[in-house]
Write a structure and sequence with these properties.
157 residues; mainly alpha
């Protein structure tokens, strides 16, 4: 084969290799763009909702504990902070559940577990407050139980 023939074959090989590299690079880039889109539309809002949920539940627990410092009926600002935090936690649960694929049984199970335990938590706090208002010392036991549930079961999820 002559030199011009070899150069022609080499040129064709280089063009094919360049096209193959371009095709592979394009496919990789498309896959990365899809991953970024998934993160932006699914993972990021879910992570944000989880962070908001964690924060709201922590604030609710702190406000519930603070209410017992005053004995009897707590100041309205403390009660309002607790109610706002519980409402924020509920909103975060709704937001998180909207970002979960209905086929993702594990995530849905975790969210429903948090929702169920939040209801138990608020019930324990209400019972603790009622007992505290009546001067029953058992109220602090209910509060301790609620706080233990929050710190040991709900927040670690």
């Amino acid at each position: 084969m002559s030199t011009p023939g070899r150069l022609s074959v080499l040129a064709v090989v280089l063009v094919v290799a360049t096209l193959a590299a371009g095709t592979v690079t394009s496919a990789i880039n498309a896959a990365r763009q899809q991953e970024i889109e998934t993160l932006r539309t699914y993972s990021e809002p879910l992570a944000d909702a989880a962070q908001n949920l964690y924060s709201a539940l922590s604030i609710a627990d702190a406000a519930a504990a603070a209410s017992f410092i005053f004995g009897g009926v707590e100041p309205a600002v403390v009660r309002d902070r607790y109610n706002q935090a519980v409402g924020d936690a509920s909103n975060a649960l709704v937001t998180a559940s909207n970002g979960v694929d209905p086929a993702d049984a594990e995530a849905l199970g975790l969210l429903s577990g948090v929702a169920r335990r939040c209801a138990e938590y608020t019930s324990l706090v209400s019972t603790a407050r009622a007992n505290d208002r009546w001067g029953n010392p058992i109220g602090i036991t209910y509060l301790r139980s609620a706080s233990s549930m929050m710190q040991g079961t709900i927040l670690p999820l």
